[in-house]
Amino acid sequence: MTTSDIVGPPSILDHNLNRHFPDLLRFNSTPEMEASSIYQSIRPEVERIMNAVAVQSPSLGLPASEPRAETGSVNALAWNLERGIQLDGIIDVLKDHPQLRNKDVLLLTELDYGMARSGNRFVAKEIADALHLNFAFAPVYIPLQKGSGVEAEMAGENTLSIHGLGTFSPHPITNAHAVALPNGKDKMWGKEKRLGWLRALVADIEHPAGTFRAVTLHLDAHSSRKHRHLQMRIVLDHLETLPPLPTIIGGDWNTTTFNIQTSTHAILGYFRRIAMGIRGVAKNHFPHPDRYFERAMFTDIEARGYEYRSLNEEGVGTLHYDMNSVQTNENLSDWVPAWCFPFLFWAAKQVGGKVSGRLDWFAGKEIALAAGTLPQTIGNLTGADGRPLSDHDAIAVEFQVSELPHISAKRAEEVKQ
Fold first, then answer.
1. Is 189 exposed, middle or buried (0-12, 13-18, 19+ CB in 10 A)?
2. Are the C-beta atoms of 132 and 63 separated by less than 8 Å?
3. How confident is the model at residue 408, as a pLDDT?
4. Which of 22, 36, 148, 389 has the CB geometry, 3.0–4.6 Å to 86, for a possible disulfide?
5. Which is nearest to 135 in space by CA: 62, 79, 59, 61?
6. Across the chain, which distance is largest between two alpha carbons, in Å?
7. Which of 139, 79, 86, 83 lies closest to 115, judged by CA?
8. Exposed, middle or buried: residue 337 (CB in 10 Å: 0-12, 13-18, 19+)?
9. Range scoring the smallest mean pLDDT among 119-128, 228-237, 399-408
10. Angstrom distance (rounded) from CA 103 to CA 407
11. Kind and range of the H or E run holding 131
């Protein structure tokens, strides 16, 4: 794994690996696959894709959808788009929703490129083109299948088979690169087999009020609390090697409070929470993972000089489990044994059939919440057909940069040298 990237236009992601997927699907572990002759023959191509960052700047010189006032603050949005399956509705709300439109930076996770479940569209590019934004996109996985749960039943076949995350802005994006993060579980084990690993996407945004650094971060869902903390440490360690800039980190940190590396760990954790009192856990821990279960990671964040408390809407969940959702339960059935569902339903009933946790966060260094504003959690985002646009709520924050120095891309390079 490396932080040195091949940066270029979206065409750098073109590949012809799909013809090897049937052979790769025969393997049930990454070490077994990597030892094979078939993988050795394609390894350079896999690593080329996994070390790439696609960058496009179509917005420079183009009008935004609405004039943006050059104020001394930055409006940021982070949102897990659930693959971009509901892409047309997502673009509509990013254009028109009063709490989502006209942001200075968007930190978006779970973006497909050439996946059947999202219509084989390049989600990042279509969002950028529709909103006249510059963007950087980093692949994190090359899925060998169409997906898990209900995704596996979707019509069509994958074309490019890339899944990743992106940073978007109407302002120039420079110094884009990605930081590789170790997987929390073997991605070749289980029903959804994938090549690759998660990466944090780092980029400098040349805002009129001052250049700042944006980090789009998606921590591993199938991991332990300790592993998520490890991934966060890797990101923070890397940021300390860069020229100093005000920094915003945002995205889906998967602070579920659970160890989900295996179904056994998840089930044991579930029964632990029942023993603690499910009503108390649902009220005091799922929306507040930093209080106890995930406290070590948040303590480390603050020890490194990052603020998170004022930049997030305290105690408001961003992911909601509804016992009556067929899709949620079908997706869970891929890794939770059927005998567990009566217990899950019983626990959910104790809190009204719906449980919410806060998985999505901002943290910042040398920035402060803009005066007179509050961080927001934006839920109930639906398309024209009434279907939810994502399984996550969006989060937004406005932070102050008016007192911060402007560092041009050229000057940043000089500082590096």
1. middle
2. yes
3. 41
4. 389
5. 59
6. 61
7. 83
8. exposed
9. 399-408
10. 21
11. helix 123-131
- Per-residue pLDDT reduced to its tens digit, 183-222: 999 999 988 899 999 999 999 999 998 999 999 999 999 8
Please tell me whether residue 295 adopts helix, strand or coil conformation: helix
Amino acid at 254: N
The pLDDT tens digits for 55-113 are 998 765 444 444 444 567 999 999 999 999 999 999 999 999 999 999 999 999 999 99
Sign of the CA dihedral with 241 first, then 246, 250, and 253 last: positive
**pLDDT at site 155:** 82
Q: What is the pTM of this model?
A: 0.90
Residue with tokens 């990605």: 178
Q: For Cα atoms 147, 357, 75, give the angle at the middle one, nearest 5 degrees.
A: 90
Number of H helices, E strands in the chain: 12, 17
In the chain, the amino acid numbered 54 is A
Alpha helices per DSSP H over 201-277:
225-239, 263-276
DSSP state of 48: H
250: nearest Cα among 183, 280, 205 = 205
Residue the block writes with tokens 């869970």: 332
Residue 315, pLDDT > 70, answer yes
Tell me which residue of 320, 395, 396, 391 sits closest to 81, measured CA to CA.
391
Q: What is the DSSP string of 20-38?
A: GHHHHTT-SSHHHHHTSHH
**Distance of CA 12 to CAs 4, 49, 60, 139, Å?**
15, 8, 21, 11
**2: pLDDT confidence band, cut at 50, 70 and 90?**
very low
Per DSSP, the residues of 315-327 read T--SEEEETT-HH
Q: Write the DSSP string, 49-74.
A: HHTEEEEE---TTSPPSS-----SEE
